[in-house]
Amino acid sequence: MPKIKLILSYDGTDYCGWQKQKAHRHASALPSLQETVEKALETLLQHPVDLSASGRTDAGVHAVAQVAHFDTQSRLPKDLCWALRSRLPHSITAKAAFEAPREFHSTLSAVRKTYKYWIWNDPRPPALLWRYAWWVRQPLSVDFLNSCARQIHGRHDFASFRSMGTPVKHTVREIYRAEWTRRSPQLLQFIVTGNGFMKQMVRNLVGTQVDLSLKAQPHEMMSEILKLQDRQKAGQAAPPQGLFLQKVYYPAALDKRCRDL
User: Fold this and answer.
1) Catalytic residue set
2) Strand, helix or coil for residue 187
3) How far from 231 is each of 190, 191, 225, CA to CA, in Å?
4) Quick one: which of 231, 243, 239 has its CA closest to 190?
5) Per-residue pLDDT tens for 169-191?
6) What is the dihedral of CA 123, 129, 130, 135, to 10 degrees?
7) Going by C-beta distance under 8 Å and a sequence separation of 6 or more, which residues neighbour residue 157?
């Protein structure tokens, strides 16, 4: 049975997150991204589809290149992405499709991920970016934020930046890159690449760095918060709308065996 790998881009504003939810009285009224794409594939392929992704983005979080996979025995259209275009809402796009080797798994095969986070740093809110950036009115220093970010490079226990809700075997992660830049006079961007991220970990990292800046705390506090391994010592999570899953990386040997569709 062929395994199909999809690269998906989406605006997560109008969804309850990636993962479909079981029906219960506290369930969100919003649809999930997973069920939305599954329904489009099922309509096209005429059989039930179980779609797995590289990770579960939270409600309101976006993706530039989410990776997902599913199995099918159906004959595929000549251009699967184009065929999905009319079956998906405008907020979701299938950017690329591949036939992947059987051992490929979008979640388990991933070796690192890159996220980006946008902050609109201006006294006035962003009319055109309110769905995609956190508005922070008070001035922020990129130099100070980078002094904080440098302290999370390398292998650390990130228990202080773990939100409850998803069980994990351990809280140790390795960060390969963490950097702030100014894309425009008002738009700040945080890029972080690591071998894995826990639930809301990136948002907790961003929120803590901004909190230290606004409270005029020394940047060395970032390292102290890491060492304490206590979620209560870190700042609040940054809001979800500024977060994007930018890229998911897989072993080169697996990538080379994926055939374009």
Assistant:
1) 58
2) strand
3) 21, 22, 9
4) 243
5) 899 999 999 999 999 999 999 99
6) -30
7) 171, 172, 226, 229
Q: CA angle at residue 190 from 188 to 195, to 5 degrees?
A: 170
Q: Which domains does the chain have, with CATH numbers?
A: 3-109 (3.30.70.580), 112-246 (3.30.70.660)
Strands (E), the chain: 3-10, 52-53, 62-71, 92-100, 112-121, 134-136, 154-157, 172-182, 187-194, 243-249, 259-260
- CA dist., res. 236 & res. 239, Å (int): 9
Question: Which residues partner with 181 through β-bridges?
Answer: 189
65-108 pLDDT tens trace? 999 999 999 999 999 999 999 999 999 999 999 999 999 999 99
